[in-house]
């Protein structure tokens, strides 16, 4: 019995060393005996650290985790505390001791993962959680805790992280190769085009020679345009392109794009119409250059793949939760239903490769990547033989000044409690926006993951208090991610906040897609209060 009560301290009758499990003929087991049996069955060990004698006592499960039978412990020599410290990896021991000290002195939660040497020479990962007991005067008496073997989950996590790292390296290598090849191709192509133009200046050329030179120049320009698109795609995929976000008026950019496309529309006898519909003064936050590139790609396709005498109509319309939609409607050929999933694939021209209209097949892929990199959304609808409508959406902002203040110090009335916040968002702009909102709160640790799988890895290694996830995650959904993390004892206490629609029990709270700092503070504070309860 581990009973060393000080004056006024109630006895704690827990047989940690060798809990007695009732046999079939014994009396009805007590609640404590059932609890000890349950802990032993699931492989969790019990330990006690007596702060008055500095003695630590471990039950048989704790020693079994290290490969010892309970009867073998005394043969190793030294006290259990000395043996335990000896078997803790030197680089982990200071962190474990600091966690214990912080728990006893600062009343911080005791939950620490560390490594121990197994009896066979291997390494065992364990998770130790505990709680200090104090006497009536508030003086710490003992720490009681549970030890869990997490070697399997740690090894699985390491393998998954290694595989994820390998895939990322392969993707980066492919993007780097594509970027380098595209860059190197530009120099000889420019030389070919330059010399062909010089030769065309020769007045002695006959019409047949001049026509062939024109074909060389035309083919060279098409190839140069293709290389430029490939270079742009590689720059995006290798994270070499960082949008320069700023307040901008999309109507002004669209008007400029229509002027640039008017010659092409006249050539193809397509009526190009821009209808701002009262949104001339609206503001969004985007990269003006990249936004213009997206509009030119979408509107250019609408003109190119239209019928003679057809129309292209560009207009604005408000959407739910403060978003603004820019729609580009055409009366062209439309897209067959069976090819809808291929629309945003690079180098896929949806069967137009043999047609008379030139193209690279990467314009829509670039438009999608750029739109999402700026924090926007892109989609389309189409009916074969009737036409298509592509649209992009961005959050409206009230005034440029407010947007510029996203990274400024927050108002004194706003408060965020100390916490670790894991953001799951596939859009770099979304991550950067939240970083800006949190920049004035040094007590909040911001973590980021691009998808649900990466978020699970991060949650298990970084122990966030809150997971803030986009309701429209690519791949595994936020609901599936939340279910997996809630089933894991390591991450069961995390609170989940959905950005957008929150379905069922997938989240503890929700934020609108265009949430502001005040809304964020309110939700985070509420989640932390619930977590403390």
From TrEMBL:
Residues 180-398 form the Histidine kinase domain. PROSITE patterns: HIS_KIN, PAC, RESPONSE_REGULATORY. It catalyses: ATP + protein L-histidine = ADP + protein N-phospho-L-histidine. Keywords: Kinase, Phosphoprotein, Transferase. The modification 4-aspartylphosphate is found at residue 470. It holds the Pfam family HATPase_c. One of its GO terms (cellular component) is plasma membrane. Residues 420-533 form the Response regulatory domain. This is histidine kinase.
